[in-house]
């Protein structure tokens, strides 16, 4: 249920200017009835200035009259407060990180040339002109630009970058790379688990030990 923009100030106004019950005011403002009691007794920690919900177009006089005539009636808000919405436009980048944008763009161009300029612009929050200047190396500061991971620079999140790379790769018909660094260790672990399961099936005793990975094997001939 929507609540007034300033619930305590609205409650103070309703206490002073209407005959609504504390329970009705608490329900409308989203407050506890004891808070309404404290406002009425003027025992709150801060002096509240009442806010007229009628002038704020959150409540009508008809609603107030209905509530005053029937203590069990629950007030209905006319219009909730406007929600803050992010406007469309380029991604906002803190001033302290804007100087890092060319480095992040250069990294994407070098490592993921399949990503379009428009997609880079949305991810980093830059213009096509800047991206084009970095592609053809005509940027005014090209001598001082060092390609750096935009995630490390704090220009975007890893999830955003991964999603963009996957989308661009799919559009270009490029197969997404797979991580094969742990394939050997996975095979060793699966073999160990299979052996333990077979031993349990035979009624044998299984020794519990840390799984053996390639990185744990020591070459006796290597000094």
User: Can you tell me the overall shape?
Assistant: flat
Distance between the termini: 72 Å
Beta-strand proportion: under 5%
How much helicity do the residues have?
40-55%
Structural class: mainly alpha
Taking the sheet with the most strands, its summary is: none
> What is the radius of gyration computed over CA atoms, rounded to a whole number of angstroms?
33 Å
Poorly predicted regions are none
In round numbers, the mean pLDDT is: 79
Helices and strands, in order, run as: HHHHHHHHHHH
Number of helices: 11
Number of strands: 0
Describe the 3D structure.
This protein has 11 helices and no strands. It has 223 residues and is mainly alpha-helical. The longest helix has 19 residues, at 183-201. The radius of gyration is 33 Å and the shape is flat.
What are the key terms here?
223 residues; mainly alpha
Per-chain topology:
Elements: H1 7-17, H2 22-29, H3 33-40, H4 61-69, H5 95-98, H6 101-111, H7 117-124, H8 128-135, H9 150-153, H10 158-172, H11 183-201
Please outline what is shown here.
The protein is mainly α and 223 residues long.
């Amino acid at each position: 249920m929507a609540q007034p923009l300033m619930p305590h100030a609205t409650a103070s106004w309703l206490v002073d200017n209407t005959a609504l019950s504390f329970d009705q005011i608490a329900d409308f403002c989203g407050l506890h009835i004891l808070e309404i009691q404290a406002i009425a007794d003027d025992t709150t920690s801060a002096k509240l200035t009442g806010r007229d919900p009628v002038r704020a177009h959150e409540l009508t006089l008809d609603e107030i009259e209905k509530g005053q005539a029937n203590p069990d009636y629950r007030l209905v808000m006319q219009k909730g407060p406007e929600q803050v919405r992010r406007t469309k436009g380029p991604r906002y980048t803190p001033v302290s990180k804007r100087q890092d944008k060319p480095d992040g763009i250069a990294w994407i161009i070098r490592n993921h040339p399949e990503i379009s300029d428009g997609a880079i612009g949305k991810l980093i929050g830059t213009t096509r002109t800047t991206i084009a200047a970095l592609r053809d190396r005509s940027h005014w500061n090209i001598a001082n630009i060092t390609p750096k991971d935009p995630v490390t620079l704090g220009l975007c999140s890893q999830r955003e970058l991964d999603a963009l790379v996957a989308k661009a790769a799919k559009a270009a018909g490029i197969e997404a790379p797979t991580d094969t660094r742990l394939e050997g260790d996975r095979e060793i672990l699966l073999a160990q688990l299979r052996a333990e399961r077979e031993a349990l099936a035979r009624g044998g005793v299984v020794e519990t030990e840390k799984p053996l990975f390639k990185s744990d094997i020591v070459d006796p001939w290597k000094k």
